[in-house]
Amino acid sequence: MxxxxxxxxxxxEVGRDAVRARITEIALDLFAEHGFDQxxxxxxxxxxxxxxxxxxxxxxxxxxxxxxxxxxxxEFVRDAFAARPADEPVWDSLLASFEAFVGLxxxxxxxxxxxxxxxxxxxxxxxxxxxxxxHQLWGRMLVPLVAARLADxxxxxxxxxxxxxxxxxxxxxxxTTWANADDDTTVSELLERSFAMLQPTD
Length: 202
Known about the structure:
The chain is mostly helical and 202 residues long. The chain is 73% helix and 0% strand. It is built from 10 helices and no strands. It has helices spanning 11-34, 41-48, 52-58, 63-67, 70-82, 90-107, 111-122, 125-149, 156-180, 187-197. It starts with 10 loop residues before the first helix and ends in a 5-residue tail after the last helix.
């Protein structure tokens, strides 16, 4: 009989997530203090009490500490969109899917770390490039679902691509504005405001 159930992660998975969270916390502190490009994997590993080889068991590269797991989160957003009512406006479904993503981050205690991560990301060219790769990945996941929901007409694929990329831009603007703000405005509030500014009128 298995010692784990399908109701949640195994103890091994919980332990791995805890180690990843600790490495992330240490690395982000170092990036914030010294700058991303000035911090090496070995420095992060030493501060975390492990070897560089052990670090790479949890993160392929130091960029992944900041960017996170774009494929996993993209799949979450894609599935959240797919679960929305078929007759709901596409723009509203995308907003709800991104709000679910932000809510999951908050539930997992990742939002506050996300503030530091966003500040590091926007200040580093290599990380901005990785963020663009995330846009492309999420776009490939979302565009077919959005296209299937659009009314038949010309340029359906193009329209779907534009809508998805605009939504992703709203998500990035919300996170970036929140990361640089000194008030108590939440990511969700900024996300709703960003989407409202581009809300289709028909």
